[in-house]
Request: fold
Amino acid sequence: MKGTYLGEFQEIVLLTILVLAENAYGITIQDEIGKRTGREVSRGALHTALTRLDEKGYISSEYGGATAERGGRRKRYYQVTNLGKSALDEAKSVRDELWSAVPKVSLQKS
Amino acid sequence: MNQHSNPPKFWTRLFKRLCNESFYEELQGDLEERYFMNQASYGHKKAKSVYRKEVLKMVRPSVLKLKDRLPTLFQVSLFKIHFILSLRNLKRNKVFSAVNILGLGAALSVCLFLVNMLYTGFTQDNQHPHRDRLYRITTTQLYASGGYLASASSPRQLESILLSSLPEIEMSATIENGPWIDFPFGNEPYKAQSIFVDSTFFRLFNFKTLEGNAFGIFDDLNSIAVTQEIAQKIFPNESAIGKETSNGAVIKAVIENPLNISHMDFQVIGNRGANVLSENKKKAENEEWEIANGHYYYIRLNEEVSREQLDEKLESLTLEVNKKPKAKDKTFFFESQLVSGITFGDFRWLDFNYTLSRDILYKIIVLGVVMLMVASFNYTNLSIARAIQRTKEVGIRKINGSSKHQIVSQFLVETVLFSVLAMGIAFMSFHLISSTFYTVLEELSGLFTQSLSMELIFWFFVLSIVIGLLAGLLPALYFAKISPLSAINARVKSRSLSVINLRKFVTGFQLTISMLCVLIMTIGSDLYKQVLSTDMGFHHKGLVTFKISDVAPNLIQNELAQIPTIKSHTLTGFVPGVDHDVLQRVVSTQNLDTILTYKGFASYDFDKVYQPKMLNTTSPQGFDPRPGQILVNPSVLQQLQIPLDSALGKTVMFVDLKSQSSEPRYIAGVMDHFVRNAIELSPAPFIIELIEEHPKMNIITLAVDSEDLSATLAQVETIFQNYNPTGTFEPKFVDDQIENSYTEFLGLLKAFGFIGVSIVFISILGQLGIALYTVETKVKEIGIRKVLGAAIPQILKLFLKGTTLTLTLSFLIAAPIAFLLVGNVILPIITVDSYISLFATAKGFLGLSVLVMGIIVAQTWRTARLNPSESLRSE
Reply:
């Protein structure tokens, strides 16, 4: 189906959400991605990716707790849906197949 | 250490305004949490910097308030959509669009010409240093009879007085009209116009020296400077420096052409010291205060002096001069004229040839405005028609959620696109036509530069966009307000602004404008014919003139008398209706009134050839060859206060301008309405001196039996070559010369004709466009009628009936307007008796009607022949 393609960054976001389990919201996802991939991601870029994933139905979200540091504003927690998990599986299997199909010789640096 | 501060307020507010409400809470919360985290770790400066960057990076589609923000932030992509749609529409209705664009393009190209002329005119003489202090001193001579002559040239005696009594003058230059300078050029020498100046000329005026040294002409009395025009014409492909004129004057410099950049026109500049006057002339000049001798005074005012102070000084100078004892009690009035304001300024007699006065400016502006208005109406009409066609499309768009703003923007983009394309056409046609325009409108060539400056092009580009916006605004606003349902149904409503009525109004208005233009054109060209065929007061059809030189005229005349096909011939010094020979001072013997008249020399056979209409003659067979006979026109009698009845035989004294001696002359006849010069506002006093021979008489006029004209001319040519082998035989028709002498008027008529034709062309295009559109919208109606059994002629008749009604109505509206316009604008310019011809009016009406009906018939025919089942099926 068109529009179900999982981009590289979106894949990373999904995985990060899974890694963070219960504590996946904007700040933590941003920090985790920065820590694990070395890429500094702006909150805005992250928001776009999260919106796309939400449109595709790969994640769901709900409001969480508010704190004083946030000026009393609530956080939005994200979870990966089953659909999202299947997409991840598919993406992974495509990668794995490709990797295994590569002859060992080609991977050696010349 | 780590101060506690809040996130930057401005950026927070900015973000609040930008962000979509549904996720503002979580995003703002995250931003603040991040801020405080950073503040704790890195300090508030870094925290603020990160905050700002994050807000900036929030400017993206997924974050922003989509619904209201779209038009302003996405102007670019919406414009692109509209642009693509406009292109598509253009391609779909190729003919209609072409008609529309061509019409506007024609108008814009004419405007381009006019603006070019205006621009050239206004920037003339702007290149001189300190042009705000550069003036010309002019003289107005007041006559006892109450008349006056405002002249650009001033009396010679003024120069010394100016210099001595006006210390306000920083620098001055006197320009004297010089004689024709002959250059060796083929068979006959080329005669160049000259001016004689002193060295301040080149300091006062900025004329670029292209070759040589301009100041070098003041080294001796034998050096001159020539303009680039002369250098290229006489000495092409080589340097003109060092070359000589026919009289041995040496060229020391080549100057840029004054054409287009200055009010002055000259081809040769000479040293003033060399403009030697004969003793007699000097004596005469020192006694007289003569303004007509071609002295022009230009000054640069001192910095601290204001113009008012100069004018005051000139006033007192006027009083002083008028107290002096001068011959013949002349009264003068001296004024200053800003040099950069000479072009398009007040008209002055005896000015340089290419000076153009303010009334020409007004004419040009009026023409341009009229042109532009007609074309804009046309364009707006057509764009409304086009828009009406798409009423349904607009309705559907609105239902789909298009905002008013978008609908308006769609129309505006289309009309601007069209007008920019029209601008492109205008530029192209400007380049194509400009060379022919230049030669056709020689009379106005002082104003026309063939290249366009960048500034001009830019402003015209802006103008085309403005026209597009204005033309598209009306339909756009109309459609933006329209309710979508009524747009789709296109039901006839009782409101006056319903779609059907708008259509009718558009068609009718277009037709009225076309009718108006065509009527003006036909009436105007009829007027032109009237002017050309006006009664000149003498016979001129079929007469041929040719010039002779270096031979005694009577030798040739004797031979001519032997050619049987030459009915009669005469020797004159002028061509009647075209020019005159000299000025003559005449004194009445009664009361010593002196007047200046035009004079022409003619031999006694004059009346046989030209048969001038006389008020009373001595003998009907011709003039008694008594010496000293003159013919006068009523204006002479009037100015000398000689009553008409007692004029015959009266004596007047001719005063020689040089020697001051006077001789008697006898009035042999009074000419009735002899037109000395084709277009003349008030008939000037004119005298024909009948004399057998005079050095100035070198034109022979022949009245020939018309059947044998070419054979006769060949015989005459042989005779001519016999006596004058080195000269060229150039026979010309008197009629042609008269026609050519309508110089300024002709130029204006030609310009008007050119513009008129363009206007008519645009109107016809508009008609075509409307016709196309009308028929297109009636395809279904025609199909239905055919199905119901109507034959093609019946359908045609039905359509024509409506058209005839519209045509008559438009004629009734347009005709009075046309009469008014012609009566108030054109007729006053024409000095001969003329009238608005009803025949021409009818011709215009019929011509346009036939054309319009023809277009409609052609279009309807095509549609009527379509298979009705197909035309009804398609949408």
About this structure: The mean pLDDT of chain A is 89. The helical segments of chain A are 8-20, 26-37, 43-56, 82-101, 104-107.
